[in-house]
Predict the structure.
Amino acid sequence: MGKVLSRIVLGVMWVIWLVPVYLLLVNATRSVSDNATASTWSLPHHFALWSNFTKAYDAAGLGDSLYSTFLYSVLGPALAVLIGALAGFAIIALRVRHGFLWFMVIFGGSIFPIQMLVIPLFVGYADANLYDHRLGLILIYTAVSVPLAAFVMRNFFTGISYSIYEAAVVDGASPLRIFLRIYLPLATPALAAVFILEFTFTWNDLLFGLTLSQDSHVRPVMTALASLLSAYAGTTYNVVLAAMLIVSLPTMLVFLCAQRLFARGLALGQTN
């Protein structure tokens, strides 16, 4: 009886999740001319996903936004993962003084809601001439990604025997060499898991893009898509939906292609 009930509950939850996905796919692939005669729930008469995306691409100049978003989504998480690994190595392997306090200072950046950072960031970026610059967005995406990276890497390095570090020191290896040649290769699954999470967050971010950028060459793609809502509202919503669907594909593909590595990395990064 319990198994039957659990399957029923899972089936209901699956349907609830599937309904909005179905509406997205149906309306993103429908041509604008079919909106007058077709229901929101009905299947499209003509497959117009690519033509709808082309309209959005030309209207919002998505080429520059896609390039900028790819830059932010790769550089920001990559730098954050490296910094988080260095922090975890220093706390666990080098055993710096007050290591747990340093860890709490780093991880404390994730305690406060991101919305609290918007106004101070805007004022600070304006004063530092970083507003509407790619460097400024790379810096903020790196900063907000470091706490999670440090948390996972600290937990992972805790599971590595300290005798490995001591043996390497006896052999004459420097701390940097030990980090690059021993600890970093061992942490590849955990590094990949954190990178995938932060890549997804950065790619889908809207708040920082709206707050810290304005130029079409600098703003992330989600910010560019948001600007389409005013131009393509009402009966032309298919254009925006098609663009959002195609733009979301990179994060889906990254996760699907690396899901085993992702699951393994999170398991290795759990607290022992």
Notes: The radius of gyration is 23 Å.
